Automatic annotation (TrEMBL):
Residues 11-69 form the HTH tetR-type domain. The keyword DNA-binding applies. Residues 32-51 bind DNA. Keywords: DNA-binding. This is HTH tetR-type domain-containing protein. It holds the Pfam family TetR_N. InterPro entries: Homeodomain-like_sf, HTH_TetR. It comes from Micromonospora andamanensis. The keyword DNA-binding applies.
Amino acid sequence: MVTTEETGSRARTRQAILQAAIEVLSRNPAASLGEIATAAQVGRTTLHRYFAERSDLLAGVAGEGVVRLNRATTRARLAEGTGAQALHRLCAEYFDLGDLLSLVFAEPQLISDPAWATGVCDDDFHALVARGHADGSIDPALPATWLQSVLWAQLYAGWSYLAEHDVSRHEVLALVTRTVAGAVTPRP
């Protein structure tokens, strides 16, 4: 029984370190391991027990990123409703991953990690766009790869706007989803 408790404690400590790394590095990619340890409320020695070097920590963050993106994609239920409805849900789920995805934009080497090689959400995203083209909810002149870039750009714009202005997350998410919805609406 003690082993299970230690495993649970180790898992929580590891998650705390990864979460702190995501939060700290998204705001300052040059932050030291000491700053990350402080944010995680662990000693530097403890951080090094879990992640011996910075590269190990970044690999852990990359793996955690894939897990979180896949969870968000699952929660968005991409196979349900119209293509545009699924895109709206995906946008909302991804918006909540602001620190993680801001870090990925700031540190593109994270997505060169083998954990990202499977193309997070790509097949499902292409399927939802194809469904949107077929059901008339997404402009058929807009290819999936373009819409994926539009989604990422709008999310980044939303996170930047949130950081720079005195507005709520709810207000910014509404702006982002409205902009994405307007961008994909078929033109007469």
